[in-house]
């Protein structure tokens, strides 16, 4: 019997690239900058990223909060629209890399985040640009560590799909499964035989199905195990009985000796 397990959710390596206008273009950033209240900003983000069901869908609500607080942090730090759009893209890419697999990938995600940050802080076109300075790098890193990576397991639990385990058993020495009825009919048609003629030509009895053979094999194995277990229990009971009888004999001898000593003293 062989047990085969297959997982198709292995963590994937990600390459950092410039992502300034990846998810938010200039027009979207203008709309975001014009949103003054919390409700306006959340409504705008839900429209831009198809999260209109955030009131009934927990995943949409979590994503909306993640996007909203990313914009709020960018506003508090005084980022321009290029910096805000870039940081938003970094957060979104890191989140998607995190939840793409149910397996642990925190180290890979943090490495990917670090590469994205440095990709937008060093001037080396066309591979990287100097959009954030050193102080802003520290602020972005602290924000992601204290917000996203601190709650990494919660995001993983809420967004990653469940693992489905498919188990297949292969038994060595089992007969091949019988061909389907359609294949049997096709073979008989090619031979020019009717079903009655084909049945008449069969000389042997009906073949045993693989399920019946497997059931008989399991029953025989269980009977053997039960027989061995019964013999083992009988042997242990016999040994225990012999030990108990030996102790009784010793006690009887000791009792008889003590009685003899008592009679001698009385005389």
UniProtKB/TrEMBL annotation:
Pfam (any one): CLAMP
Record-level GO BP terms: gene expression; single fertilization; sperm flagellum assembly
CC per GO annotation: radial spoke
Region (Disordered): 178-210
The protein, known as: Cilia and flagella associated protein 119
Encoding gene per record: CFAP119
């Amino acid at each position: 019997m062989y047990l085969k397990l297959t997982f198709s959710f292995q963590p994937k390596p990600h390459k950092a690239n410039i992502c300034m206008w990846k998810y938010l273009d200039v027009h979207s950033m203008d709309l975001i900058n014009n949103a003054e209240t919390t409700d306006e900003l959340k409504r705008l983000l839900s429209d831009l990223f198809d999260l209109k069901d955030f009131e009934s869908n927990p995943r949409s609500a979590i994503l909306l909060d993640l996007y909203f607080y990313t914009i709020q942090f960018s506003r508090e730090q005084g980022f321009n629209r290029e910096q805000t759009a870039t940081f938003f893209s970094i957060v979104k890419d890191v989140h998607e890399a995190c939840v793409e697999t149910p397996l642990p990938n925190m180290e890979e995600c943090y490495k990917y985040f670090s590469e994205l940050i440095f990709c937008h802080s060093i001037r080396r076109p066309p591979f990287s640009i100097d959009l954030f300075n050193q102080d802003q790098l520290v602020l972005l890193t602290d924000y992601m560590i204290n917000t996203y990576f601190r709650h990494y397991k919660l995001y993983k639990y809420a967004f990653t799909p469940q693992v489905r385990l498919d188990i297949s058993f292969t038994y060595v020495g089992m007969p091949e499964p019988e061909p389907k009825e359609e294949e049997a009919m096709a073979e008989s048609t090619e031979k020019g035989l009717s079903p009655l003629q084909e049945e008449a030509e069969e000389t042997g009895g009906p073949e045993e199905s693989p399920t019946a053979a497997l059931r008989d094999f399991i029953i025989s194995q269980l009977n053997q195990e039960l027989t061995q277990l019964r013999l083992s229990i009988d042997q242990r009971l016999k040994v225990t009985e012999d030990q108990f009888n030996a102790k009784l004999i010793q006690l009887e001898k000791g009792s008889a000796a003590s009685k003899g000593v008592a009679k001698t003293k009385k005389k």
